[in-house]
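ok posting inputs for the guanosine-5'-triphosphate job
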Amino acid sequence: MFSNFISEEVRIIVFGTIKSGKSSTANNILGSKPFETGLSGNGKTKKANRVALTSNNKIVVVDTPGFFDFQDAIHTGIMKEELSDAINLVYPGPHAIILVISVIGFSKTELDLIKWITDEKKDMLKYIYAVFTGRDILEKENKSFEKFKEKLPEPLRKFLHDLKDRVFVLITQKRPTS
Ligand SMILES: Nc1nc2c(ncn2[C@@H]2O[C@H](COP(=O)(O)OP(=O)(O)OP(=O)(O)O)[C@@H](O)[C@H]2O)c(=O)[nH]1
Ligand SMILES: [Mg+2]
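and the output
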């Protein structure tokens, strides 16, 4: 398995807006399902959670609660609290911070978040990877990711362009209805 080829621990934080598919992405990376996923309720994931791949503990993934409204998350301090909780769980620091975005749930929250990262959290940028969940939904509509990207707001397209090859479009878990 992949984990047999890495000699050092790899520490990954998964974050993003509510219901974007963070826990599904985290499970996907680990190849098991330690994190609860689903559409019901106000946010399945309540606190930053750390799970290490059990075979040899070489992949550590921290799943985080989603935030619904970026301005609210900043003003109430939730954003800072969530991020510092997650960072504390990956001492001495993360190798990757995965920003999860759903192809169906894209909103102003993501735009605000990206602006915050690029303006105020530049030190985070070198760790950021973007994962779009819901590739199956694009496939169902016969839409390529390139076509999907054309419709995205300019700041997000620029952000993705600057990430270069650190952008992935995945099927992390199908919605129960599909
Ligand atoms: N069709 C489809 N559905 C997905 C995909 N990834 C996740 N989902 C669905 O999206 C819903 C939310 O997934 P979660 O992984 O729980 O999302 P989350 O961001 O962790 O949610 P919270 O912790 O509640 O913020 C679930 O019903 C998943 O089945 C995908 O690639 N395709
Ligand atoms: Mg979750």
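notes: Residues 22-23, 44-45, 63 surround magnesium ion (ligand 2) (CB under 6 Å). DSSP finds eight helices and six strands in the chain.
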